[in-house]
Amino acid sequence: MSYDVLVVGGASAGLTAAMYASRQGLKTLVITKDIGGQALLTNAIENYPPFEHIGGFELMQKFEQQARNFGAEFAYEEVLSITKHEEGGGFIIKTNNNNRGYSGYTLILAFGKTPRDLNVKGEKELNGRGVSYCAVCDGPFFKNKKVAIVGAGDPALEAALYLKELASQLYIIHSTDKPVGSEDSIDLLQDKDNSNRISFISNSIVKAINGNSKVESLTLYNSKTKSESKLDVDGIFVEMGYVARTDIVKDLVKLNGSKEIIVDKYCSTSSKGIFAAGDVTDVPYKQAIISAGQGAIAALSAYNYLQRLKGKPAIRADWKSVVNKK
Question: Residue 4: what are its φ and ψ, rounded to 5°?
């Protein structure tokens, strides 16, 4: 199956691009590891009109639903490679779950910063089968199950505070002597009422994620005792923060010295048919509202690009009334 638009990224830029592209009648696929990106790191957004106060996850849910309402499709997968289609133009995106790849005529790069991987044995193989990078997104699937969080700082602690209401047993794995982050969060997690269900595992790193069709256990290495042990769990949440990874497109588009994608006022890149939006671009201001605006520009530019290929007129606005495809 071939798409008109392939969007890489599931936060404000990518979701807005998907909504605008779908609204123009373009067959659109969003490929992303999670929904929300860095917005999930905050429970309070106060500078996104028209909301005086809204949680990051709630806002991103609204973005996603609006894109779906206009017909956008979603693949929750990790992008492994992006190449130009040798025959007929367009692009092919291969993912961890689709070796043949998704084919599209245009490409919108809107992945911003992506979750850091552990880079350990079993992680890629069990991604989506007990390995998650978004506690808020996937937490409900682990109700009354044993889960582990690996990471440090407030992102890991916030994930733990959320998961403690769902999991039967929660392990927080960190490489330091003591937990790092908000003292209030640490106190809540170490409260005596939680002592039977929540355990901090210090001076430890994950060496491997074990399981056949799903996560069954973790291999841990303790830097103090120099020993390995196994921890039986049903899932692991990787909360290592986010990083910009543009190496995957360095041979497709021009990057600046900070490895950001260079775009013009139309969000066009140096390659025909490829557009970019959001934190991954060289636009200096990194805000959700700016990423969303860029996403809209990228989608309309992709639409106009396809119109020109067909010999049809381009558009300059998007004021038409469209019935949602709920």
Answer: -75, -40
The residues assigned a catalytic role are: 134, 137-138
What is the rounded distance in angstroms from the CA atom of residue 89 to the CA atom of residue 291?
28
Those residues with Cβ within 8 angstroms of residue 198's Cβ, 6 or more apart along the chain or in another chain: 160, 164, 170, 171, 172, 189, 190
Boundaries of domain holding 255? 2-115+242-309
For residues 303 and 71, give the distance between their C-alpha atoms in angstroms, rounded to a whole number.
15
pLDDT tens track for 68-104: 999 999 999 989 999 998 766 799 999 998 988 999 9
Band of pLDDT at residue 291, cut at 50, 70 and 90:
very high
One-letter identity of residue 119: N
**87 in a domain, yes or no?**
yes
* Domain presence at residue 325: no
Question: Is 0.85 topped by the overall pTM?
Answer: no
Phi/psi at 299 (nearest 5 deg)? -65, -45
Q: Write out pLDDT tens, residues 198-225.
A: 999 999 999 999 999 999 999 999 999 9
